[in-house]
Amino acid sequence: MKKLFVRLMASCLLLSSSYALSAADTPRIRLATTTSTYHSGLLDYLLPEFKKDSGYTVDVIATGTGKALKMGENGDVDLVMTHAPEAEALFVEQGHGVLPRKLMYNDFILVGPKTDPAHVATQPNVQQAFAHIAASQTPFISRGDDSGTHKKELNIWEKSQIKTDFSGYRSVGQGMGPTLNMASEMQAYTLTDRGTWLAYQTKLDLVMLYEGDALLFNPYQVILVNPERYPSINYQGAKIFSDWLVTSKGQALINAFQLQGQALFVANANE
């Protein structure tokens, strides 16, 4: 009886060790990306398909574009997926990233209270919409986190020749989800990507008020971290993932992804 117990224990230990070894040996890729791709549900939709095709597990770090690029610059991740073209161009120009690829696009929208106190919905362009928010001193919640959305918002204020020192402006240093929640609570305006809006809108006391301006175009890229700077990163795995995203299958999956019956992203790697 004692010998049987010892054998059983040894078998359990062997199985446990084998499982631990197997888990440790699972190939992994570290991806820094924006909160918009995370909150929209796109990655939850794509990554199981990629794992089935490649065997790789992708560890996702969702943050603002500025922080995602900084993680790439520091060699803390293997690749980035972001949406701030000027910052991405600098990231590559300075040698931090290689093989930048167009991936997909969606758009930004302006949301706010149903009463629309600044009358943004009737403005001829998004710059005029922003100007009316400032002139009316209506609350505006800015992400203030150096994300792609924050960079786009600041770009619109700049093009509108308006300083963000009016009394209604609030910079909160938060992701898109918390920013939308705060705007809802304060009955304020905010700029958001369409994907996160669709994921959150049923929980918010806000409506979409402005869309369609060319200035609100929102392109995404995928960029590999430079392996010459960080030889220890998983460059091979990152390239396999980048290659897969721009294949006909990856692009078709991006186009097929919907939330509440609406497509969130348009794949454009081959344009």
TrEMBL record:
Segments forming domain PBP: 23-247
Signal peptide, first to last residue: 1-23
Keyword Signal among UniProt keywords: yes
Highest taxon in the source lineage: Bacteria
Keywords, alphabetical: Signal
UniProt protein name: Tungstate transport system substrate-binding protein
Species annotation: Vibrio cincinnatiensis DSM 19608
Lineage: Bacteria, Pseudomonadati, Pseudomonadota, Gammaproteobacteria, Vibrionales
